[in-house]
Amino acid sequence: MMPRNSVTTQAGRPRPGRQYAIALWLFFVALALPTEARASLLSPELEDKLANVLALFVIFVVPVVLIALFWMVHILPEKIAHKRHHPQFEAIRTLCLLSLVFGGLLWPIAWLWAYSKPVLHKIAYGTDTARHGSEGDAWDEGQELHQRLARLEERGIPASELTTLRADLAALEAKFADVKLVDEH
């Protein structure tokens, strides 16, 4: 029989405790060997180029994207008011622009206003919506009035009433022409 303090077992293999000690010793020897160590998989030149590209992206592209997103979020109440034919659309648009100037502090007010029902407008004008369109809408309505007047002439309406209607129509056209001139200046 072999003594107990022998390094090998009967089959000629080292003991399990000795295997771990040898593996640990080899690990420390591998750590002690001088090798080139890198923190990145890229070469230093490629790292510098990547850092420069990333810095330029952060300096130029990110602020432009953030400003565009800020702008798009701040005109949402204006778009909502236009879609819902809100009668105070122009005031909401102005509040959105002021909100841009004041860093977004007025934006929640514009958002709530765009979704609100204009009670006082409905009392004054009988409706809570307004038509929004281009400048040509007033001209189209004027043309429509002229066509309606022509249909009335065909029906045989008395000339005195038609003369009164034409005078009223001419007065309205003159009034809108004056308003348009004032708006342009």
Main features:
71% helix, single chain, mainly alpha, 185 residues, 2 domains
What does this structure look like?
By secondary structure, the protein is mostly helical. The protein has 2 domains: 45-125, no CATH class; 136-184. Helices cover 71% and strands 0% of the residues. It is built from 8 helices and no strands. It is rod-shaped, with a radius of gyration of 42 Å. The relative contact order is 0.05. Residues 134-139 have low confidence and may be disordered.
Briefly summarize what is shown.
The chain is mainly alpha-helical.
| Share of residues in strands | under 5%
Class derived from helix and strand content: mainly alpha
Can you give the helix content as a percent range?
over 70%
Tell me, briefly, the overall form.
rod-shaped
How many strands appear in the DSSP assignment? 0
Main beta sheet, described? none
Average predicted local confidence, pLDDT: 78
Run of helices and strands: HHHHHHHH
Work out the count of structural domains: 2
Q: What's the total helix number? A: 8
Note the gap between the termini: 118 Å
Question: What is the secondary structure topology, with strand pairs?
Answer:
Blueprint: H1 16-32, H2 44-74, H3 76-83, H4 89-101, H5 107-115, H6 119-125, H7 136-155, H8 159-184
